[in-house]
Amino acid sequence: MKITPVLLALLCATAAFAEPLPNEISAQDPQLHYVGRFETKAGPGVACQWPASAVELRFTGTALKARIKDSSGKNRWQVVVDGEPRSVLDLKAGEANYDVVTGLSKGEHQVSLVRCTESHVGTTELLGFALNEGGKLLPPKPAARHLLIIGDSISCGYGNEAGSRDDHFTPKTENAYLTYGAMAARATKAEFVCIAWSGKKMWPDNTIPELFDRTLPMDPSSHWDGAQWVPEAIVITLGTNDFGKVNPEEKGWTEAYGQFVAKLHTAYPKARVYCATSPMMGDWNERKPRTTLHGYLEKIVAARQAAGQSAISLLEFPIQDDKLGYGADWHPNVKNNEVMAGILTAALKKDLKW
Residue 112: which of 40, 43, 173, 185 has the closest Cα? Predict the structure, then answer.
């Protein structure tokens, strides 16, 4: 076989990706702390698809590398160092080694990698990590509070870093770290899990409930054990897509929503549930979709309270502020997410004393 310059470059790149990392840490090391839903494979890695999936590492050392395999080459991961967002890793398709952070001061640090992008962008598999020579992994210090967000594109962070409402979806402007749920979690020192997918509804088709029990939402065979992570607060922000073209039939929609809430209550009987309105929905025509959604949610909350579920309430997210701008395709940008986060944070502090 003739070794051409192009072939030589490909062989070198492949070899570089396959090199062992110095001072390597298995992706399944018990001192790593994963937040969100990860599938543990027979091999060395752990895989995820849901937005805001995260891994936290506490260590002494000055540098951290990661070996990551990505199915699409379009996923992005926010790097957070000692509580401050730093760079974003733009992943390549296939397996590669990445410099997560370098040049840290000597001593103890915590670094988090948070998936910015949502499920349909593809699967990311974390294969391993490495510290600089002499670095040492430390036991995790997980948060005591747990916040679960269930929703659609708004909760994913669709286009929240885009410059204009005229922009369209691209993974490069989606950042789940900068969503209202993630911001409220940081404000209340809680762990944040996001079960959301753009375009999804509550009922009757294309629903989040049908994906809710999956570890990997694109894999019908994967199953999540809800006992692994127990939220004290749950926010459901669905309705934008349900009411987009027509108002859904009241009985069918409210019953489906109520059944889903009852399922959550059975799984997490101590959790407070918030049924949220949509910041993208107004009374823009004779259907008055916002008022209609509000009325449906009021009936659902009342019915669940009558059934004995006292820790449930309606959470009012106002229509996003035009003066703050928009993200892609009219979605809430980071500034409007900050407004939503403030409302949610206030509710969590009032109701749960967070």
Answer: 185
